[in-house]
Write a structure and sequence with these properties.
The strands form two sheets. Strands 2, 4, 5, 6, 9, 10 and 11 form a seven-stranded mixed beta sheet that branches. Strands 1-3-8-7 form a four-stranded antiparallel beta sheet, with no helix packed on it. By secondary structure, it is mostly beta strands. It is built from no helices and eleven strands.
Length: 121
Amino acid sequence: QVELVESGGRLVQAGASLRLSCAVSGGTISSSAMGWFRQAPGKEREFVSVINASGGDRAYADSVKGRFAISRDNTKNTMYLQMDDLKLEDTAVYYCTAGPSFVTTPTYDYWGQGTQVTVSS
């Protein structure tokens, strides 16, 4: 059973940087697309970023383009999300996902439990 575990979320001030990690156990993700979604209180879960299996193709939500960078290390079964210039509206629970298709919809097979990112002014 594949398990995804996010880490790195915490309280930061606006303008700060954070790096989230997603560690995969119970299987390999080298052939899977992986992504990040987030959900703020009272809002629906929304797409943040996705990376294909080889790491050569990436996509970002317009709201994070230019500030966030997704990457992966298949040798470590780990995916990352570097978040720079954080804004108040980035506050949310961030979820790691994995699945066979490079998509921006929340239709992935596997999901982590989420890590809280809180940005304060």
